[in-house]
């Protein structure tokens, strides 16, 4: 299987060849998304807080898990974000949490607000 052309800096690197046990006649491109992730300690506190708010086991609260998959409705999500604001002594604001869907997104938002408050 052939990959897409890759550029590193100003130098062009020819197409990569990926071997696969699945045969395919089409070409595929592989992308990696780089995001700013919250510190491990922040993520742990967020997971613990969510588990406590929803009365569930913390082991079910993985970073990629959506609040809805944990059984949280919109009111639960608001309560979770309020608990996180209290836990971290930050203010997220009304619009800050409206697009948060996953545990990782909540942790990343908390980290962003903490860093903004520190500067």
Walk me through the topology.
Elements: E1 6-8, E2 11-13, H1 40-54, H2 74-88, H3 103-118
Antiparallel strand pairs: 1-2
Helix pairs in contact: 1-2, 1-3
Could you characterize what this model shows?
This protein has three helices and two strands, in the order ββααα. It has 119 residues and is mainly alpha-helical. The protein has a domain at 40-118: ACP-like (Non-ribosomal Peptide Synthetase Peptidyl Carrier Protein, Chain A, Orthogonal Bundle). Helix 1 crosses helix 2 (74-88). The chain starts with 5 loop residues before the first strand and ends with a helix. Belongs to the acyl carrier protein (ACP) family.
Briefly, what is this?
Helix content is 39%, strand content 5%. With 119 residues, it is mostly helical. The protein is globular, with a radius of gyration of 20 Å.
List keywords for this structure.
single chain, 119 residues, mainly alpha, Non-ribosomal Peptide Synthetase Peptidyl Carrier Protein, Chain A, two-stranded antiparallel sheet, 3 helices, 2 strands, 5% strand
């Amino acid at each position: 299987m052939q990959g897409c052309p890759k550029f590193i800096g100003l130098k062009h690197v020819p197409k990569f060849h990926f071997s696969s046990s699945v045969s395919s006649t089409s070409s595929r491109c592989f992308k990696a998304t780089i995001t700013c992730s919250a510190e491990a300690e922040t993520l742990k506190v967020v997971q613990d807080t969510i588990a406590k708010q929803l009365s569930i086991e913390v082991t079910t609260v993985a970073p990629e898990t959506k609040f809805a998959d944990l059984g949280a409705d919109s009111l639960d999500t608001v309560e979770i974000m309020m608990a996180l604001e209290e836990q971290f002594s930050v203010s997220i604001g009304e619009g800050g949490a409206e697009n948060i869907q996953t545990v990782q997104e909540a942790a990343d938002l908390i980290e962003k607000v903490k860093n903004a408050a520190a500067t």
